[in-house]
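REQUEST FORM: STRUCTURE PREDICTION
Request ID: SP-0412
Submitted by: Lab K.M.
Chain count: 1
Length (residues): 126
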Amino acid sequence: MLITIIVIVILVIGVVLFFTIFKDEKSKFIGTWKNSSLGHTFTLYSDGTCYGTPALNILKSHGKWDVEDNRLVFYIGGSNNLTESYAFSFSNNDNTLTLSGGNLLKGDTNTYIYNKTTNETAPWSE
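STATUS: Completed
RESULT:
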């Protein structure tokens, strides 16, 4: 009986650790992100949609987002059907998002730092 209880406790701890360590990578992105120096804010919703304010005329309306091949990808759409992707990293307990290597501006070597301001769910998905 005691061995059964110990095995169950170990299994429960293992499951909790598994989901803590391997949580969905995309869930870290959900929310509103602000870059104060650019005056740019974008919101990534849990349903894969996004909305942003203009910065260099990138992501200034509704679009879609995803994580592919370790890059944050924006599908901006519009008449040019633009796609923009960035290498990313998180810091500050996943509250700071660093983007680099954008492909829309060829040769872009800048690094963009965004701070999370809120967690969001798409109001139209509820």
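NOTES: Strands lie at 31-35, 40-44, 49-52, 63-68, 71-77, 82-91, 96-100, 111-118.
Reviewed by: T.R.
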